[in-house]
Each structure stands twice: as structure tokens, then as C-alpha cells.
Amino acid sequence: MAIIDSAAARPDTKLARAITEFIRDTESDLLFNHSSRVFHFGAIAGVHRGLRFDRELLYAGAMFHDIGLVAGRSSADERFEVDSAHAARDFLRSHGVPEADASTVWTAIALHTTPGIPQHMHPVVALVTAGVEMDVLGLAYSDYSDAERDAVVLNFPRPQTFKEDIIQAFYDGNKHRPDTTFGNVNADVIADKEPHFHRGNFCGVIRTSAWQD
Description:
- The protein is mainly alpha-helical and 213 residues long.
- The chain is 58% helix and 0% strand.
- It contains ten helices and no strands.
């Protein structure tokens, strides 16, 4: 396997090993490998940016960020990001992680599909989103060297069908709760799979509100 720079390597701690085992047993290969790449791309971005960040908390945020898409881990009426954030916080609390750190991870996961905000927040919050945006959207792709990209993908394979596979995973994890996609990117996913999907409209909500003016 290609070697990932030690500054962006998975932390070798009891908590990190427990996270790996839990996510490995819970998620598909698609989501496990994606989440692993999110961690490494996020950590590499942190090194590039000269940020000081807790690799253990970044690992928790990256590995749990999509668990709310998994059957049995998703609710009927919360955004999948919130389900994922709740799962991470509960796991960290059960392993004795301080509440402030668990809250940071919660925020990182809850905001990872909300562009334009995380980069101005705590480094763990910023870097979870950076990793997601790199692996899913290819944002800042050219900021990573060929060697960096290759090392991550060789350790955690990104199949040729990944783009369509991840869209399908987003759809499968959200199709039972379309109302939770109002105002966020997951509405695009459902609209892509269901051409007659009628997404909520912000202006429509204003115009039909209870206010008589």
C-alpha cells in the first residue's frame, strides 16, 4: 500500500480503533471507504492550511458523518446529518470524551453539507467539510498532489462507479423523509431520482405563512 504522510494518518488510539470497528461493522464498503478518504483528505487539507487540529476528533467526525444514511440509524423526521451527528455524540460520550469535544464533532457533522460556513469555524468543523467536498465534489482537487491523492485512494479504494453509487446512497438514505431535504443539497438528490418530486420553496413558505400582510 502507498504510505499516507504521518501528519494525516489515522490516529493510533483506543478511541480511533473503536470508531473504526464500529463503522466497519455498521456501514457498507462504499460508505466506510468514503468516510476514511474524507478523514485523510481533511487531514491533508489541515496540514496544507497550517491548522492545528485534533486528529482523533477529525477522525470521529469523518467516520460518522454519513451513518445517518444507514438503515436502522436513520430517523423519519430528522435530516440525515443530524442523525449522524447524534450517533457520533452518543458514541463519544459513551467512551468518556469531554462534552465540549463531542459537541465539536456534532457540529462538524451537522454542517458538512452546508457550504460557505464550516471553513470559518473550528478546525475540526472546517476539515470534515473539506474532506467531504474533496471526495464527493472534487473541490480543491488540484490542491492535492498526485501522490497524496493516490496514497489515499490506494488505501481506501474509490471505484469507477463512485459518483453514481454515492448519489444512490444519498437517495436511499433520504427518500423516506423528503421533507427534511428542504433548503439543502439532498433535495437535488431526490429530484434527480424522482423527476416529479416537488421540493419546498422558501419564497412559497413566506407567501403562505400565517401572517396576514
